[in-house]
Structure formats: C-alpha cells, structure tokens
Write a structure and sequence with these properties.
By secondary structure, the protein is an alpha+beta fold. Helices cover 40% and strands 21% of the residues.
Length: 582
C-alpha cells in the first residue's frame, strides 16, 4: 500500500492506495482508505508537510500489516488433556464499541476533563461515566452488577466500585453542564432539528414506604401506592432527547415546564421554536409562556373537559372541511365506506380568546380513527361481559381503559329498596357517552396557516412516549438501586444519555431497524478468547444489522479470527474522533 494525494489545489484528499492484480493478470490500484482532507491534516501537523507525509506512510504500513494478518490463515493448537485456567474470563462484549465511537464523537473525554478542573478527584470519571452508559444499554441492573458487567468489556475497569458511587455525586452536580455540552456536540453527529420541541412527563416509583424530599407520594402513572419522582423530558423534532430534569413526585407536572424550558433558552441557544405537548401540560400559563419571543405552541385539547356549550359547537357535524379543500362539509353526509372518505381528515377552526391570548381551536375528524376507537372499545366490552359472567367480586381499576367502566352495578330494586344481591350489567349509557367523541381530536394553538402542518406536528408526539418506553422497558430505569438524592439524579442522567446514544445510533443506521433489533443485537455481540496467546473469534450471528453497524462505524469484529494486536487497533478505531465531527 502507498500514499496518494489527489484533488484540486484547494481541495486535496489524502488516500491510502492498494495495488492488486485483475482477473486478466494486469496490475492496477484502488482506494483502500481515506485519511482525510489534506488541508485539515496539514493543520494538525502545524503546516509541516514532511511530517504529514511521514505520518501518512506509517498509517499505510499499519494498514498493510493488518490486511496481511486478516488475509492469512491462523493455526491454533488446543490440548484435549489441558483444562482452561481458573477464573480466566473467556467471553467479552464488543457491542459497546459502537457506543464508544458515539461517545468519542460526543467528546465525553473533553467534558470530563472540564469537570475535573472544578473538582478534586483522582478517579477516571470518563471511564466510569461511559461504562455506566454501556452497562445501562447492554446489561441494565444495579451499579454493582453494572461494575461486574464492565469486567466483560475488552477494556475492563481500572477503577473500583467505591469510585463509581463517588462519581455519581459529581455527575448529578454537573448535570446542567453535561446536558448542554452533549447537545452542542451532538450537532456534529446529527444536526439537531430544534424548530419543534416536544415536552412530556413521566414518573418512576420506589418500593419504599417513607418518602423524603425527592421521593414523594403523588399521582403514579402506573397507579402504584408508592413514593415517586417525576421526570420532565424535552425532545427535538427528530425524536432525539434534548434535555431532562428530575422533580419531587408531588410536584404539579404543569409547573415543571418553565424551569427546564428556561434552561434550554439560556444554555442551548434555542429561542425560536414551536412548543408541542399534551393537554395535561398545556395550562394557560404554559401557553402564555410560549408566546414570548419567537415561540409558538400546539397543545392537545380535551373535548370531554370543555364546557357543554363549547363542546356542542366543536362536535357539531356542520362547517367541517376536508384537508386541502375550502368547501364546507356536513359530516353526516359522508359515506365512510368509501376508501377516499375513510382515509381523509376533516377539520374546523374555532377562534378562542383566553385572557389576553388569541387562540385557534382546531377540531379534526377521521373516519379511520373512529373505526379504530370502536374496534378497541368492542374488545373492551367483550372483556366486560366475561367479567360479568365470571363469579366473584368485581373491582373497577383506576386505568381509564379498564373494561369495568362499561359495567354498571344495581344494588337496589326499582322501588328503592335494598336488593338482596348486586346485579351487574353492561352500561349502555356509558358506551353511548364515549361514542360521541369517536373520530374527533382537538388541538389549541396560536399559529395560523397550514392546518395539515399543525396536525402533522402534533402527530409526532408519540415519539416522546416511545422515548419513555425505551428508558423504562429496554434500559430498566426502574428499579433504582441507590438511595441518596444526588445518586438518584445521576442514575437518571445515565438513563437519559443512554437514550441519547441510542437515538443517535438509530439515525446513523438510517432508521431502518426497531429498538428491539438494535439493542438485542448489541447485547448479543460477544467474542470468545481462544487463549491468552492467540486472539478472538466472534460468538454471535452475523446479520444485515451487524453488517450495517460495521459499515457505518468503519471497523469490523466479524472476521473468523482476530488477533490481539488487531483487536487493539479496532478499539483504537472506535475511540478515534473523525475530523468532521470535531
């Protein structure tokens, strides 16, 4: 292999070329690897072209040696009589290498060096922090189990478990700085789409009885009678997390918005965006806050909670229009069996004045959404009928989708006397009450213009729910195995950053795989050490996804055999920071 510099005088590239022989016997050459832009590389060597060429030729020698090693055959001897050494680890995870590459591009090393200047600690914060993230994605568990898992990485911990707990306190204290720097650096991996910001809250329960300043009794989304903490999460228009914070479990979710949004306005250089959230977080005060500056809002609006006279106007089937048309339509005249009608969306706009705010209430109607709601309800009614037929006590759950809401109980006779037994039946009135809202949806906004765009912006809110699902289910953010407030916050910080890494990885792969496919593949990617003197063999299944991972990140772990020297070079490649991502 040799070095070749090509291109125009102001736009040169430095390549490693490889000589090879064609099928017809003639010799030729081809590009083997691009080292980078000539001017960028020259800048690294302070304008010394001679030093640049020496370095480039050395890289060509290294690549030639690795190529020859990979092309050669390997013979490894084993003894049928010899036992493997005691306590010698033979299985290692390599799925973390792809996460390590993203961490390098996010400049975790630089962030941790900056933090160290403000604190007095001797442990390796960068190693601890990134290992906690790898463990959260690949083997979520307690900090002790995470520490043990990290011993199976190709680069085992050189710190101790006590250092991990000490580092959690620092991570919690530096939360705002870390989030701000990660946001800035993530733009080099995937330019952030901050034109629309989505916000939502969830909570996590703790299996304790006595609450404290952070873990407080509140309204659990999982209907658990335990102390909880609340997480507020901002997401950009591409579904990538932007910022988060943790609040006491008894704090009103509506009051969590302003502190976190103010932090984004100040630290993230985000001042012009459309704020999108659900009705529970879209109070008049929060909407008014997002009329300031160059901000706007789109908030879901509850039809059921509207005043009766306003709701009657909203649900009146007259004065609707089909998206893209100015002609008024009476919904009662639609033949919803026609495919075009079934797949269309109809809307009406109602001007609303809230205090000093002029708002626009947009009511949409979708025959397809109506059919979906009725299909779900029919299943719930069938379940309710089975509950009635099943002997035993009947309990109404707290979930709004509990089928028991369609069951009515009669405990008195028509004359008002106490009945000898309770009679259960399907509540037809409740069914009719719910059916009146089928197909309808509402948002309130201060935007004017393209209704289709407003509807599409609101539709993307499902992605923030998906982010919560990934953290809770795939990354097992709960249970939390730490008790101190600062360590609890640091735990959720690692969960948040794990989500950020996953979303960036998803984008790098072109959004072509599900979260389950990506996470399970990374977790399955292990290597087996044949013996301490030789090297590794892959012990996972090669798939299209593993091929895409290797192609995207520029290194491969799926060769039949990888020497220890080659593996060290792969690790070095995973840690390398591409010039364009600096």
């Amino acid at each position: 292999m040799y070095i070749n510099i090509t291109g125009s005088p102001n736009n040169k590239d430095v390549y490693i070329y490889q000589s090879y022989r064609k099928d017809n016997g003639k010799t030729s050459s081809r590009i083997y690897k691009k080292l980078g832009k000539f001017n960028d590389l020259l800048e690294q060597f302070h304008g010394d072209e001679q030093k640049l060429l020496i370095w480039a030729k050395e890289q060509a020698k290294i690549e030639t040696k690795l190529y020859n090693q990979q092309k050669g055959t390997i013979s490894v001897e084993f003894s049928q009589a010899a036992c493997i050494p005691k306590k010698e680890l033979r299985s290692f995870s390599v799925g973390y290498l792809f996460l390590q590459s993203i961490c390098s591009q996010l400049r975790f090393d630089k962030i941790c060096r900056s933090i160290k200047k403000r604190h007095k600690f001797k442990y390796d914060l960068h190693a601890i922090f990134t290992d906690l993230i790898y463990a959260r994605i690949l083997s979520p568990s307690s900090k002790l189990s995470s520490y043990d898992f990290c011993k199976t990485l190709l680069e085992p911990p050189k710190y101790n478990l006590f250092d991990v707990y000490r580092a959690l306190s620092v991570i919690a204290e530096e939360s705002d700085c870390i989030q701000s720097e990660l946001y800035k650096n993530s733009n080099f991996i995937h330019p952030r789409n901050k034109k629309i910001l989505y916000y939502d809250c969830t909570n996590y329960y703790f299996e304790i009885e006595e609450d404290d300043d952070l873990r407080r009794y509140g309204k659990s989304k999982e209907h658990r009678p335990n102390p909880i903490v609340t997480m507020g999460l901002f997401m950009d228009a591409d579904g990538i997390p932007l910022a988060f914070d943790i609040f006491p479990g008894n704090k009103n979710e509506q009051t969590t918005l302003k502190p976190l949004e103010s932090k984004i306005l100040q630290d993230f250089d985000c001042s012009e965006f459309i704020f999108c959230s659900d009705a529970g977080l879209g109070s008049a005060n929060n909407r008014r806050f997002n009329t300031l500056g160059n901000r706007a809002y789109i908030i879901t609006h509850s039809l059921k909670k509207m005043k009766k006279e306003d709701r009657d106007i909203a649900l009146n089937p007259e004065q609707f229009r089909k998206l893209g048309s100015d002609r008024f339509i009476d919904l009662r005249t639609l033949d919803e069996k026609e495919e075009d009608v079934f797949n269309s969306i109809y809307y009406k706009e109602i001007p609303v004045v809230t205090g000093n705010m002029d708002e626009n209430l947009i009511i949409t109607y979708s025959p397809k959404y109506k059919a979906y709601q009725r299909k779900i309800r029919s299943r719930q009614i069938e379940r309710a009928k089975k509950i009635i037929e099943t002997p035993g006590r009947k309990h109404k759950g707290k979930n709004q989708n509990d089928p028991m809401r369609f069951v009515k109980k009669t405990s008195v006779t028509p004359d008002g006397e106490i009945a000898e037994k309770k009679v259960y039946d399907i509540d037809l009135e409740q069914i009719k009450k719910e059916e009146m809202y089928d197909g309808f949806y509402a948002v309130i906004t201060n935007l004017e213009g393209d209704i289709r765009e407003i509807i599409n912006i609101n539709k993307q809110r499902w992605e923030i729910e998906e982010n919560f699902r990934i953290m809770k289910t795939d990354f097992e953010a709960r249970p939390v195995y730490v008790r101190r407030e600062d360590r609890i916050k640091a735990h959720f910080m690692t969960c948040y950053i794990s989500l950020l890494l996953y979303r960036l990885l998803e984008r790098k792969l072109g959004n072509t795989y599900t979260s389950n496919q990506i996470i399970e593949t990374l977790r399955s990617m292990n290597m087996t050490l044949l013996n301490t003197a030789s090297g590794y063999i892959p012990s996972y299944t090669r798939t299209e996804l593993t091929d895409d991972l290797h192609k995207t990140f520029g290194f491969r772990t799926d060769y039949e055999f990888i020497t220890k020297a080659s593996m060290r070079n792969i690790i070095k490649q995973a840690k390398a920071i591409k010039k364009e991502n600096k």
